[in-house]
TrEMBL record:
Keywords: DNA-binding, Transcription, Transcription regulation. It comes from the Bacteria. InterPro entries: GntR_C, TF_FadR/GntR_C, Tscrpt_reg_HTH_GntR, WH-like_DNA-bd_sf, WH_DNA-bd_sf. Gene3D superfamilies: GntR ligand-binding domain-like, Winged helix-like DNA-binding domain superfamily/Winged helix DNA-binding domain. The keyword DNA-binding applies. This is GntR family transcriptional regulator. The lineage of its organism: Bacteria, Pseudomonadati, Pseudomonadota, Alphaproteobacteria, Sphingomonadales. CDD domains: WHTH_GntR. GO terms for molecular function: DNA binding; DNA-binding transcription factor activity. It comes from Parasphingopyxis lamellibrachiae. Residues 28-95 form the HTH gntR-type domain. PANTHER family: GLUCONATE OPERON TRANSCRIPTIONAL REPRESSOR, TRANSCRIPTIONAL REGULATOR, GNTR FAMILY.
Length: 253
């Protein structure tokens, strides 16, 4: 796979992201905000596997000093999203088919536990979100909007981790994030798969809402394992490289 570099001139999200850094919440440092941005852009496929995160370019791009950029990249390296190489700019990590499948296997265990904890810790504030989220996914069973589905799916899993309120669990789950996942695999999603997943989300949310911890754990594990099996079967090195090449061309245009 060819090594790519982030193109400052073609970055159309610069103004929005710079504002995000300036308007960050008081408890968040610049490094926190940058780590959030870099993480999201890696997962969305804006920074593709193989891309070099050049420190000097990033400081210019976001209008910040090198210290926060360095710290943000260090955190992403700890999460397994980038590879830090001596005397070279860090590179967004790729993934092969075997590792892809194994990451889903482990993630299924961790997310199942997060659903169990969420059911045990659910409070009135959580119940309001869960009720609204459940209604949203009930409507999604008739939705064919892939972009909206992918974003909502990420929010669903992330928010259950928030309810679980377990810092180590959250940290370990983050380390199983797959770089470029959204951008590379979004075209593989089909309406039937989205609807099946939506119905499973409704069942998981209902179990959490009812405080049925064991049921929530079982449903979440089955849900993540099934998704992993389906996507791993579709995964191939050729497919991954082809999708990355297509995305690189789009970014260059």
């Amino acid at each position: 796979m060819a090594t790519t570099f982030i193109n400052i001139e073609s970055d159309t999200k610069l103004n929005t992201l710079s504002e995000f850094i300036k308007k960050r919440s008081p408890e968040k440092s610049v490094a926190d905000a940058l780590a959030d941005i870099f993480r999201k852009r890696i997962m969305d496929g804006d920074y593709l596997p193989g891309a070099r995160l050049v420190e000097a370019d990033l400081t210019k791009l976001y209008g910040v000093s090198r210290g926060p950029v360095r710290e943000a990249i260090r955190r992403l390296a700890a999460e397994g999203l980038v590879d830090a190489e001596k005397h070279r700019s860090p590179m967004v990590r790729g993934v092969d088919q075997q590792k892809f499948g194994r990451m889903f296997e482990v993630r299924a265990i961790l997310e199942a536990y997060s659903a169990k904890l969420a059911a045990q810790k659910v409070n009135s504030a959580h119940r309001k979100w869960i009720t609204q989220e459940k209604e949203k996914w009930e409507k999604f069973t008739y939705c064919d909007d892939i972009d909206t589905f992918v974003s909502a799916n990420t929010e669903f899993h992330d928010h259950i981790l928030v309810i679980a309120d377990h810092d180590v669990l959250n940290e370990q789950t983050r380390q199983l994030a797959i770089p470029g996942y959204k951008a590379v695999f979004k075209p593989l999603l089909r309406e039937t798969e989205m609807r099946r997943s939506s119905l499973q989300h409704v069942e998981i949310l209902q179990a959490i809402l009812d405080g049925k911890a064991d049921k929530a754990e079982r449903l979440m594990r089955k849900h993540v394992e099934a998704s992993g099996v389906r996507l791993t079967k579709k995964f191939s090195a050729d497919l991954f490289d082809r999708r990355l090449h297509e995305l690189e061309k789009l970014q260059a245009d």
